[in-house]
User: Which sequence fits this backbone?
């Protein structure tokens, strides 16, 4: 069964702290992995997409890494801000061209001023 | 470029009724997928459409159906609504299959 686990389920940090969110997945034959952000009651905003042939992607204060052999991905947020408060979800697509994304339950992040 | 749009944003229906949700993908995107999000189950894949054909379907009963039109717009239908169908229904589009997906704001369905 394809599964994604995200640890921790919730995280509260003071503003300015660097933090790491973890994602582990069961299927090593992934096609790509995507990190999303979701604000309460809203849709998902794509943050970073890592293809299976890549090891990491960066966008501003965000850096995501992918280790297929261990089935892990991490999202690093530098110098966190209160506006970063949201739920962060990781999801992967399997090889074979399927459009289906398999999601984790997410990490709810609160950045305190 | 406009993002993915979904209508309506909120719906309240009674058990046993049916409902149709609409999704307009980003211009030029040909693939549309639908997901259901609930507090207990999280995000679950419903189905994917590409070139007006259903390419993949999740583990949902036949009451859930969908279609895609020639302009890539998509609709999903839920018949004989149950209380457990209350959820946020999200639509995602991508330029091609298995490319980066972009999500709409969702339709919040409440079944009473």
Assistant:
């Amino acid at each position: 069964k394809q599964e994604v686990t995200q640890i921790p389920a919730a995280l509260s940090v003071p503003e300015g702290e660097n933090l790491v969110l973890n994602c582990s997945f069961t299927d090593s034959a992934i096609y790509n992995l995507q990190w999303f952000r979701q604000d309460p009651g809203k849709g998902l905003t794509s943050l970073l997409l890592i293809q299976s042939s890549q090891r990491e992607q960066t966008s501003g204060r965000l850096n995501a890494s992918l280790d297929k052999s261990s089935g892990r991905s991490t999202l690093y947020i530098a110098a966190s801000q209160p506006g970063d408060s949201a739920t962060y979800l990781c999801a992967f697509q399997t090889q074979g061209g399927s459009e289906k994304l398999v999601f984790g339950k997410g990490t709810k992040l609160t950045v305190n001023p | 470029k406009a993002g993915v749009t979904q209508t309506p944003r909120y719906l309240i229906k009674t058990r046993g009724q049916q409902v149709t949700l609409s999704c307009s993908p980003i211009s030029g995107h040909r693939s549309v997928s639908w997901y259901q999000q609930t507090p207990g189950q999280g995000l679950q894949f419903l189905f994917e459409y590409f070139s007006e054909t259903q390419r993949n379907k999740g583990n949902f009963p036949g009451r859930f159906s969908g279609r895609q039109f020639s302009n890539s717009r998509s609709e999903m239908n839920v018949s004989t609504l149950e209380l457990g169908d209350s959820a946020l229904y999200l639509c995602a589009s991508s330029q091609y299959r298995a490319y980066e997906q972009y999500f709409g704001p969702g339709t919040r369905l409440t079944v009473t």
